[in-house]
Structure formats: structure tokens, C-alpha cells
Amino acid sequence: MDSAEKIKSFFKGEVHTEAEVLESHSRDASLLKVMPKVVVFPKDADDISNLVKFVVGEKASDASLSITARAAGTCMSGGSLNESIILDVSKFMQGVKEVGADFATTLPGTFYRDFEKATLAKGLIMPSFPASKNLCAVGGMVANNAGGERSLAYGK
Length: 156
Hints:
Order of helices and strands: HEHEHEEEEHHH
Strand content: 5-15%
Radius of gyration: 17 Å
Number of helices: 6
Shape: globular
Mean pLDDT: 93
Number of strands: 6
Distance between the termini: 44 Å
Strand order of the largest sheet: 1-2-4-3
Low-confidence stretches: none
Largest sheet: 4 strands, mixed
Helix content: 25-40%
């Protein structure tokens, strides 16, 4: 049984090996192209946890297994590319959970533009202000330590 079939046995989200899905995840905003073997769309944090456990357990028999998380795919350095498993949080893991007086909680696939609307409504800002703010997702911003013009005043 190949990795994709094994993943399907425990994964609640979607598991894809179709050429068109792999092709669409072989590029990001960089000049690079790296073809993955599997693309998964987790339903929740349990899917991610179980996928990590699976890769750890299978690593001894398949050293090529690895996971790269991906949100909007706007990385310009190839950070969202991988030859093994792409874990794409953009499909099911979106939404602002809570915005408090001085904090906000959101899922990683949430677009920054949506997150910003929710925080601005409470008078809060996220200091990172990348050029791709209308296209990028919060998970990718955190993963890449995103900056931008507001970083000069507030830091990354």
C-alpha cells in the first residue's frame, strides 16, 4: 500500500494524487517548481496531528517522507513546495475564531484580508503588512515571519 492509501485510512480530510492537483501545488509565487507526491487538505488539527504521527512512524521505511504546510501559496522563496506531502490548510481550516481586547485567534488558512477586517473592527492591527496582504493567509505569514511596512514600527 502506498503512502496516499495509508493516509486515506485515517485522514478525515481530502487526499489527492491526481495530476492536476499535484501540478497546482508544484508552484507558489517563486520561480521554482517542485512536484509533490501527495496533497492533503486537513479537516482539523487532529488530521494534522495524525499525519505527523504517520510520517514519524513511516520515516524508517521511507526516508523521503516529509510534510510541508501550505496556505495561500504566495511564498516567493519556494517555502510551500515539497517533493513529498503538501498539507494545504486553505480549504477547510479558515476562519477567525475570536478577537479579544488585545488578542486574536484564527485558523491558518484564513486570508489576511479577512483577518484584518475582524481585527480592525476591534481597533487592533497585525503589525505584519506584507505586499501580498490581499492574497496571503495568516498561516503562511507566521511560517515565513512575514514583515512589511508596519514591521518598522512594531517588529515582525
